[in-house]
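Our platform keeps sequence and structure together, in a single record for each protein. Nothing more is needed to write down the fold, since each code stands for a local backbone conformation. An entry from our holdings is shown next, in its original layout:
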Amino acid sequence: MAERISFDEYGICGKIGSEITPEKMAVLGRSICTVLGGKIALGTDNGSGSEMVKNAVLSGILSGGGTVLDFGGLPLAILRSGIKFYNLRGGVHISSDGQRINILSSNGINPDLATMTEIMQSFSSGKAEKVSHEGIREIISLKSYKLYYIRDIINNCKNEKLGFNLLICSKSSAASSVIIPLLDETGCKYTIYKGDKPSIGNEFAQVVKNEGYDLGAYIDESGEKLTLCDKNGNIFSDEMYDCLAAVIVFRTEPDKTFVAPMDASSAIEKIAEIYGGKIIRTRSSKNIIMSKISELDKDKLSSQFILKFDPACSIIKILDFLKTEKTSLEEIAALIPTFYMLKSSAACRDSQKIIEQISKKHKNADTTEGVKIFEENGWALLSPLKDKVRIVCEGTSMEAANELMAKYTDIVQNIIK
């Protein structure tokens, strides 16, 4: 058997009817069961495109002798939580259009490369184990877990009523099915923004500012990324949001430990210094960040994990923090040290070799991810991606950031020549 399908670090993706068919998805389900074994969680975003894929994967898991725990329609973040809560071997989450299948391991995060490779090889060979009809196990419905999850979020709030007025835009129907009851239950007012743009923009920010909302919240199609906008119309960058999350973790968690990717601003260290916290720097891969955060608290999803990967719960956690501290989003933003960052990339054939050449010339550089070079006026991170070198610079001023970007872009371009 030589089925062709596109695997990546999160699972698979493709078009319905070509790469993704019922036959292939049944083989995938059986392969996942063969590698992970035991009880497998299954969940979907709300959408007609996910049902065919779900049923095919389900049949494959059953034919491989696995037990399916059907969580129904819910965001990926909640399925991650359910896997940890029930101590399952892994899970599968299917996007609303059925064209993205996330594979999850026993700790609720995506599998490591070795496990994903094993699943891929089992799928490609077509040799995944089948059981006789006597070995077919039951399907256990856990569709009520989403309601438990919502109640747990509310019960963990320090304030019974939050009372904020929000502008909400969610591109994920599954995430919307969670955030709406959460806002209703916590006494918040909200308006659903109907803009059709695929990302947050100035139009959304102007509505937040001009119509007097306390803040705006935008959830992307994956249901795993939250972008905030304060009442003055300022949109939080990814780096600014990480700093906000760090402030919340350091001011609310006794452990005071925060995982930050190598490309996060040095403002994170300054925040840690203010609150007596600890920073763990790691590679910028989503999987690695998830894994490092999960290691801090193996029994549950930590506050940082929620703030980073669960938009619906993040909104409530942030609002509860603001209410408890009697402050606002813009006031917290004012406490975050100013930073100046630039990002770019340079196309090339062999990015890894370029990074290796630069590393040899900077013996004291940090090589956790690519090469990170520290200078008096800031730092530059150069990391290898497919067919390009990613360049991230942070300077002590915007002028310094521009100088660093120009310098290291030239270095990369000269090597390419």
